[in-house]
Design brief:
Length: about 100
């Protein structure tokens, strides 16, 4: 897994910048070298929406015998998944 590069100048986006653009900046990002504007593509939005849902459903069925184990497992896995999102998310140039 690699972080995405700019299509124009081939500058690689940083993990921190990608993470912030996915969670805090409305799914928009701008290349720091050539100022090309990028938006999150539709496939990545679907991954963002449904991956946590599937994890929650799977963990609730797996650890349904103890509420606290389920709660801790769900919280821990969602944190872990959120740190991996910048490697999976793909941005496309805004036209």
């Amino acid at each position: 897994m690699k972080l995405q590069k700019c299509n124009v100048c081939m500058h690689q986006f940083g993990w921190k910048k990608t993470y912030k653009s996915v969670f805090f900046k409305g799914w928009e990002m701008q290349c720091s070298k050539c100022e090309t504007h990028y938006v999150l593509d539709l496939r990545s939005k679907w991954i963002f929406y449904f991956t946590p849902s599937l994890v929650i459903i799977a963990l609730n069925n797996l650890f349904s015998f103890d509420f606290y184990i389920t709660l801790f497992g769900t919280f821990f896995s969602l944190i872990l998944i959120s740190f991996l999102f910048p490697y999976v998310m793909k941005f496309s140039p805004d036209i």
